Amino acid sequence: MITIKNTQRKINYNTEQLSKDAQTIIKFLKYPDFDLGIWITTNKTIQEYNKEFRKKDKPTDILSFSFHEGIKPGERIEVCCEDEQNLGDLIISLEYVQKAAKELNHTLEERMRILLVHGICHLLGYDHEEDADFELMQKEENRILKHLTRSKTV
Questions:
Q1: Alpha carbons 4 and 118: distance in angstroms, whole number
Q2: Rounded to whole angstroms, how far apart are CA atoms 85 and 90?
Q3: What local confidence, expressed as pLDDT, does residue 51 receive?
Q4: Please, which residues have CB within 8 angstroms of residue 19's CB and are 6 or more apart in sequence?
Q5: Contact status, residue 39 vs residue 91, Cβ threshold 8 Å
Q6: Is the torsion defined by CA of 146, 147, 150, 152 positive or negative?
């Protein structure tokens, strides 16, 4: 189940497409029965989480909190019971994303879709700390985005 909570009030944003995109992605990745939480918030709130969990005292676009610690990129999540059917949670600052979208000449929806894929990849063990990790993550993101784009045109 996809759970989206939107607690920011500055930007009018319909979460319906984000929910559909998330469902399409987790189905494509063969985790259709897994839960995913998405919290859309403000720069102020995400800065607090970024400071606490990453020791970076500044806002960011997205933070990912995987339910399954230590998973390796491309490794299949194996669960013992229904309670473990959870990918994790994403926190997204919509005001940060909106500003970045303008700078990158994207629509807000395009940027949110890219970040959703990016965040889900992090939940599945991908990162971009080293060049080889970055390349592996980028390849997976592109594969998912390609599927997402195809599924939108069908």
A1: 17
A2: 16
A3: 96
A4: 2, 4
A5: yes
A6: negative
CA 32 to chain centre: 16
DSSP character for 4?
E
pTM of the shown model: 0.92
- Domains of the chain in start order, with CATH, are 2-153 (3.40.390.30)
Task: Say if residues 68 and 126 touch (Cβ distance below 8 Å).
Answer: no
pLDDT for 128 equals 81
CA distance 32 to 6: 23
Mean pLDDT of the chain: 92
- The values of phi and psi at residue 87, to 5°, are -80, -35
Task: Give residue 18's identity as a one-letter amino acid code.
Answer: L
State phi, psi for 150 to the nearest 5 degrees.
-60, -45
pLDDT digits (tens, 9 = 90+) for 4-54: 999 999 999 989 999 999 999 999 999 999 999 999 999 999 999 999 999
Residue reference for tokens 């491309």? 74
What 3 state SS string does 68-129 have? CCCCCCCCCCCCCCHHHCEEEEEEEEHHHHHHHHHHCCCCHHHHHHHHHHHHHHHHCCCCCC
Which two three-digit tokens encode residue 3?
């759970």
